[in-house]
């Protein structure tokens, strides 16, 4: 293994990314009695996994000016132009107040998933506003807080329909005009689970009638459909309901401002994308999909659901509801494998609705439709045979034999239309298109007159049957009409941000989540129009810069991980898992081994592992862990022997979910390979390997990687995530292919190219391509040496915390030489046994000390899993350790009787300001201890380090939780997943 060299302040970007440098690092190393990061890694990790990692495709690290220049050059090679392609993606205007105060604001993009709701109230309020927006526009009762994209939402709706339907059929009916990317993602899900997709013209009863009579468990009806037609699915829904099926409507979120919503037409479920509510195209993502359901189906909803409960003082508060549905609890029986949402994008879409309000949204939708009508009438006047079918924003132009020529003519004028086939052109309008551009397009299409059709009046809907014109109100909650000025909106967004805790406030030491620095220089390019305004189905020539960047990323990631090829399509870690298991299944089937469907999953694995295996059509068999937290080799051998002929794969996490480098990982891989299975290595913990070992060389056949963990894409409050798939060459043909049938060549690590032709798992070929500049910049800035240093520092930070705490709080699992990898599990159970103070009490008390709690009760109940990452400096690590030790002292005072078990600063934590300002204070501890428990310890630590911090400054830095401890059980018993009326808060 190449040595990990120390960094010097100002030498490279890595010296600013890595928190502990020079003397601080020396003190940490001395605590562990080692001389260097290289020695530490050598002691913690098995020698047979360490390698001299080479990545010949990676150039040496550059500085911030250099990476900005290179990204600008790549951006200059993109030509977004005026894409009027549509197909589920539309130009939109991101209000500047939202771009600056949400998308570009670290208070929003550096926060974690709101599993600690007391310090996530701003995000949760924004998400419940998103749910309210979706519920209003769809006229359905409950919406979740976003899905990964439109195609994924449709696939999840199909699975929901199968669970909820009382029909015995395995057939699912879809429209023949369904968007291609939605159809191909559906097909992959259906094939894995034995669902038969049946296609019909859903606008023609003679086509769908016989199919419904044969039986189906549900239908997916898109309106407007993929041809742009607006039609009435009510009769279809009635017929499917008669057969006890579930009806899913796929809807354009903007069109619902004008068209009768699906809930009023009889739909049980509605799905779609909220991209055109202010979220840039981004070459395909990230975008927030949506799903809403009628009452009675809320427990079947996949993904996250924000609900309202109350805190310990009776004040209404938000939290994630009904988590018993989710994969981290139900595992292979979960409603979905999705462990993330598109929170940052959902917040943007919700705030777009807040900014524009109901009148503004209707005005935008009306303008888009009026201009589309004007375009259609102008084209008719120019001699084109535009049909009379109702439409919203899309028209199809019949050009027998001349579509290619017309498309090229438009291209020369700067417009990219949708070349459907040799005889047909499609044009989709959006809020960015002007009347002048419509005149220009009409002029390009023929010699007929231009500008002959004056804009219609304000009442859009004239092209539709009266039964399809929306008359019901929407966005009636005061939140959508209270912030009309930019001053008010700016302050509202600031107020929400202040109610949250992100990395901009302090360390978020979440095990398995890698909350590291998301550097500003990495974040800047995602707002550049050349990246943000690129349509995912634009011609390759328009995306040369992005495609070059993507090819770099695929090559670098493959070389760093020891695999041959990479797909960037999966837009979450769970989707990367699913795609990897589909690739394994495809490989076995190609060899005539369709019977290999058993997936071995260690008992300590992430819940998504088991859920993903089930969705890929595999049967989960659990492998036990031994007393050291490792995979039990005897149990593994027994399970392999029992299922040898059925064995498809094993899913392992390395380093293990218990935070150690398992010594026998190569042996485990050999055992599975000898039995004919494949090895899936979960890449969640790659931050302990990057630059020093490669999972593809350890024995992995396939891994997903988390760009939102190891590669610096921010978590965004719970999303976006990016979960690329890396695989050996024999699995390459089975990796996710293009969702629209485009032939794509992917680079191989050693040169050459390969095609991925497996089932797509997302709507865009490159998934959440809009945030890929972040990881590209991170790798260019760090270089291989910087990545190696980051890994070493991450391992050092975790071991430093473990060493400082282990004499007081046991570290549950350690590996070689008593060391951990990049995270450690602190065992709170002895403290609970001795004092009655639970892991929940510790987590909530940490909020008073100014910390987000570590990961609670995973993978072992009653523990805290801590991952400090490489980005935190030693002062912050010490502050955390001081807080944990002080909390133990507080717990011991409870055991000693100094404070009652039912009334002490731990069980009452966290302490919001209103409680502290109450006229009465009857607790047996002081208000100061409640609010500022770490002041004395921090002052002592600062003095030891030679720092002179004004006590007033320290008090001003205090994070105030907006609510007290939230009663989750009450919230689940009194489920409310819409915006509460303002009076609910005024009462308190």
Automatic annotation (TrEMBL):
Top-level division of the source organism's lineage: Bacteria
In-chain residues carrying the UniProt-annotated modification N6-(pyridoxal phosphate)lysine: 709
Residue ranges constituting the Glycine dehydrogenase C-terminal domain according to the UniProt record: 790-911
Catalytic activity reported: N(6)-[(R)-lipoyl]-L-lysyl-[glycine-cleavage complex H protein] + glycine + H(+) = N(6)-[(R)-S(8)-aminomethyldihydrolipoyl]-L-lysyl-[glycine-cleavage complex H protein] + CO2
GO cellular component entries: cytosol; glycine cleavage complex
Record has Oxidoreductase as a keyword: yes
First-tier enzyme category under EC: oxidoreductase
Gene3D superfamilies in the record: Aspartate Aminotransferase, domain 1, Type I PLP-dependent aspartate aminotransferase-like (Major domain)
Keywords: Oxidoreductase, Pyridoxal phosphate
Keyword Oxidoreductase listed: yes
Domain named Glycine cleavage system P-protein N-terminal: residues: 16-442, 484-744
Enzyme Commission number(s): 1.4.4.2
GO MF terms, alphabetically ordered: glycine binding; glycine dehydrogenase (decarboxylating) activity; pyridoxal phosphate binding
Record SUPFAM superfamilies: PLP-dependent transferases (SSF53383)
Cofactor(s) required, per the database record: pyridoxal 5'-phosphate
A GO BP entry: glycine decarboxylation via glycine cleavage system
Cross-referenced InterPro entries: GcvP, GDC-P_C, GDC-P_N, GDC_P, PyrdxlP-dep_Trfase, PyrdxlP-dep_Trfase_major, PyrdxlP-dep_Trfase_small
Family the entry assigns: Belongs to the GcvP family.
Binding partners and assembly: The glycine cleavage system is composed of four proteins: P, T, L and H.
Function: The glycine cleavage system catalyzes the degradation of glycine. The P protein binds the alpha-amino group of glycine through its pyridoxal phosphate cofactor; CO(2) is released and the remaining methylamine moiety is then transferred to the lipoamide cofactor of the H protein.
Protein name: Glycine dehydrogenase (decarboxylating)
Lineage, opening ranks: Bacteria, Bacillati, Actinomycetota, Actinomycetes, Propionibacteriales
